[in-house]
UniProtKB/TrEMBL annotation:
Pfam families, per database record: ABC_tran
GO molecular function terms attached to this record: ATP binding
Family: Belongs to the ABC transporter superfamily.
Lineage: Bacteria, Bacillati, Actinomycetota, Actinomycetes, Kitasatosporales
Coiled coil regions, renumbered to chain: none
Keyword check for ATP-binding: yes
Keywords: ATP-binding, Nucleotide-binding, Transport
The name this protein goes by in its record: Amino acid ABC transporter ATP-binding protein
Amino acid sequence: MTVVDKSRPMVLAEQVHKSFGLIDVLKGIDLQVMPQEVFCVVGPSGSGKSTFLRCINHLEKINAGRLWVDGRLVGYRQKGDKLYELKDSEVALQRRDIGMVFQRFNLFPHMTALGNVMEAPVQVKRETRAVARERALKLLDRVGLANKKDAYPAQLSGGQQQRVAIARALAMEPKLMLFDEPTSALDPELVGEVLDVMRGLAEDGMTMIVVTHEMGFAREVGDALVFMDDGVVVESGHPREVLTNPQHDRTKAFLSKVL
Ligand code: ADP
Ligand code: MG
């Protein structure tokens, strides 16, 4: 794992706004994710959780406010007081450092588990196949799938596919991992194996933002938690505090449904 500057936030959001047409989806998000933190985001469907993750990863562009990842302004370069939009090549460089895992695993169906994990380092980083293969094998071992390296996605369970997806994201050696409800599409008996992999990553010091409804995971593994509703952060704090002693009615109402 690379050396991290622990004094500087890995993600800093200041009054981040995002709208689609006339619909305001993010209405001024302020938050800070420190290096090596497991930062959980919970909230009802439609509150803007995915949109926020997508803004961090350049899949959406914010309309107002500022967003920094590892000290770099997302989408912009600052010179004096002026901001300049990044070129596509610069955006691509920023995105390399961020791994994302979605609810749906989105593996390449025509490639084996090993092929899926090797693909981005070879195509994007121009690594040799030998180097990419060696790391991919280690990563498949780390997610407990060394023996499935030659299996195609259709031959794997949902939990196994999601673990390949995590290995695939890790293959780019990201500084930050974004998880958008990584277990929501899984059968209940497969949730644990994915959460175990994520727990291991957390123990190894990976900085992670995790959108999840798994409150047990948030409580045990999370270092910080925000409750989002209707495009704002309603409440934030240590997961155990927020989950056991929520202060706001909206948080209480949500937690009474999911806990
Ligand atoms: P969550 O992940 O918390 O369920 P989302 O970020 O997916 O919430 O969505 C928040 C709101 O933004 C929803 O009302 C959704 O319909 C809207 N939204 C998300 N993406 C788009 C888009 N590309 N175009 C229009 N509306 C969108
Ligand atoms: Mg979502």
